[in-house]
Amino acid sequence: MSLALLISLLLLSFHLSNAQPNPGYYPSYRFKSSQFYRAFNNLWGPQHQSVTGDQSSVTIWLDRNSGSGFKSRHPFISGYFGASIKLQPGYTAGVITAFYLSNNQAHPGFHDEVDIEFLGTTPGKPYTLQTNVYIRGSGDGRIIGREMKFHLWFDPTAAFHNYAISWSPYEIIFFVDDIPIRRYPKKSANTFPLRPMWLYGSIWDASSWATDNGKYKADYRYQPFVARFTKFIVRGCSPWSPRRCRGAPSSPSGGGLSNRQYMAMHWAQSRYMVYNYCRDPKRDHSLTPECWS
């Protein structure tokens, strides 16, 4: 059987199957998890943050008084950044739970950011996982988001699931339970984040846009809104690392994705992607040249 035919058959089987495919490579199992305070500090809302005694997990929550966030001790220029997260069931409209890279504090109004965000929802509706990439100036009055949104193939409130960002000088890959759901390649220096970023986690009120473009707001009758994080994997290169430093590999070959990983990504996108900024006719695609380059 030819390789091309084999790949075609595997693609067809992935497309037809409801079961999560085997990507053939599991980066979340390759590295030891970090204790919370070895990797992070509280950023805000310390009274809304609880760390377990062994520092393996942190719980953060939002109520009408405050949300909470944490930030990595050090910046990075590349790496693999993952956490297992469990979300709150029920009414969570307007609430954002986020795990992301950013340099907003170093470059306010002119920053880079790579987001995994869970957009709160109403009972009976699925959570939306939003991935996003901002490059130099997302706060300059001409906000240029690069959103891709997904409804997941499992209930993210029923158990912990792993979410991760792999960032190299050449590409950004988003993973859910080691399934690559999105690859954002570097096509030019103008459309790719290259400056150091810190790793963050947070929960906060984004009622103005988070759920159905702000139709449903945070309702504090349901407070507190809780998010739980564990199994932190923070494996990256800092700006001061030796030149030989390499982040955690995203595939068996080191970088990029294997054929099997590409097929798993096709499965996720064809079945569970609900929005792609490049396919939105209302967007000004002269501002997102990577969509057509």
From TrEMBL:
Q: Which domain of life is it from?
A: Eukaryota
Q: Does the keyword Disulfide bond apply?
A: yes
Changes after translation? Contains at least one intrachain disulfide bond essential for its enzymatic activity.
Q: Which GO terms describe its biological process?
A: cell wall biogenesis; cell wall organization; xyloglucan metabolic process
- Swiss-Prot/TrEMBL keywords: Apoplast, Cell wall, Cell wall biogenesis/degradation, Disulfide bond, Glycosidase, Hydrolase, Secreted, Signal, Transferase
Pfam name, any one? Glyco_hydro_16
Q: Which GO terms describe its molecular function?
A: hydrolase activity, hydrolyzing O-glycosyl compounds; xyloglucan:xyloglucosyl transferase activity
Main location as per UniProt:
secreted
Q: Which segment of the chain is annotated as a signal peptide?
A: 1-19
Q: Where is the active site?
A: E113, E117
Known Gene3D superfamilies for this protein? Answer: 2.60.120.200
What GO terms fall under cellular component here? apoplast
- Report the InterPro entries cross-referenced here: Beta-glucanase-like, Beta-glucanase/XTH, ConA-like_dom_sf, XET_C, XTH
Q: What is its EC number?
A: 2.4.1.207
PANTHER family assigned: XYLOGLUCAN ENDOTRANSGLUCOSYLASE/HYDROLASE PROTEIN 8-RELATED
To which protein family does this belong? Belongs to the glycosyl hydrolase 16 family.
Write out the function statement from the record.
Catalyzes xyloglucan endohydrolysis (XEH) and/or endotransglycosylation (XET). Cleaves and religates xyloglucan polymers, an essential constituent of the primary cell wall, and thereby participates in cell wall construction of growing tissues.
Q: What is this protein called?
A: Xyloglucan endotransglucosylase/hydrolase
Taxonomic lineage of the native organism: Eukaryota, Viridiplantae, Streptophyta, Embryophyta, Tracheophyta
